Amino acid sequence: MRNFMLCGLTLLFCSSTLSQSYATSDIRVLLDNGIATVNIIFSTKHRGFVDGILKFDATSGLEWQLEALESRLYVDNENIGQSITFQPIGSLINWRGQKYRGAIQFVAVGEKIRVINRLDLEQYLRGVVPAEMQGNWPLEALKAQAVASRSYALARLNPQGDYDVCGTIQCQVYRGVSVEHNRSDRAIRETNGTVLMHQGEIAVTYYHSDSGGTVASSAEVWGVFEPYLVSKSDVGTYTPHRNWQFRIDPSRVTTALRGLGSDIGSVSSLQILEYSESGRVSQLKISGSDGSLVLKGQVLNKIVRGWGMKSTLFVLLDGLTAQGDGWGHGVGMSQYGAKQLAQSGYKYSEILRFYYPGTRLTNVRSPRTPKE
Q: Where are the domains of the chain?
């Protein structure tokens, strides 16, 4: 059982397509998944919407206990529907000690409760951009990050699902009000509504911390070709994520493999079998006391990052010691590269053109393309 205080909430309905007014484009962010019971304490006036219909107004002091059973929510054993959304009157959401703008929605999925933050896309970006890139970095780099984050979010809108994106590194990091920064706010305002397009569709603008000197293609990392996510030499720059060493813990490797349903016994060594076009490890052989296993593709990337390694751009110094460069999957924009380009005088449009060749900037708030 978990207890959370709702300090105020705002209901905003999610638009499903870009043909609708961008001003009504909201996003649904998964904050929590798989909670059995939630105790809610309301500290302000609020409204409650059940399955999108206003059901009640309440004053502060009300306490609720939400439980899920067969994809239905129950309050004091009363079935209130599959979902409920709380709207504030002039306040913020407080969830797990973090404050968020917008609304909070609880959705029953089987016997568990899914927690979703619903808010305006531009307000959402205020909690994403400074979480993904330091607020004191050059403004043009922050603008590039704002456009990349906005494009990524809009490309992920999923009206058929309960939510669009998660708030972790698995999607893009979202930390709400606590990280908001005046310079990233400015970058968001000055690129308001601007996205990257490719052949009439919003580009899926993946990005990462540091390419290690060579950007990876989407094809080599995930097996999906996108003409604007190609391998290329990155700008030369110093970052804290170059020339790192990592000692691989055999017990962590064993645990990760068992999670895949594979057990090769006690892990003894690793061997690189193949590199990708950008120099990243694309096939890795793991040997153990009871056999061996070859990892490749998305499974390789997920497992290696799960061990705590910064990237797959590495060589093995011995069977269990890696030396590498970069941090992240390496696809799309390198954030440290964007910083270097901005410091060299590049505008955000030029930074984005470098990392996403063949795309174009479009303002989805109006039919015209913003000046570059």
A: 2-119, 139-238+330-356+359-363, 244-324
Q: What is the pTM of this model?
A: 0.88
Tell me the mean pLDDT per 10 residues along the chain, length 372: 37 33 74 89 79 74 85 90 85 89 94 96 98 97 99 94 95 97 98 97 97 96 95 90 94 88 91 96 95 91 88 94 96 98 98 98 65 41
Neighbours of 24 (CB within 10 A): 12
Q: Which two tokens stand for residue 204?
A: 């899926």
Give Cα 293 distance to the centre of its chain. Answer: 30
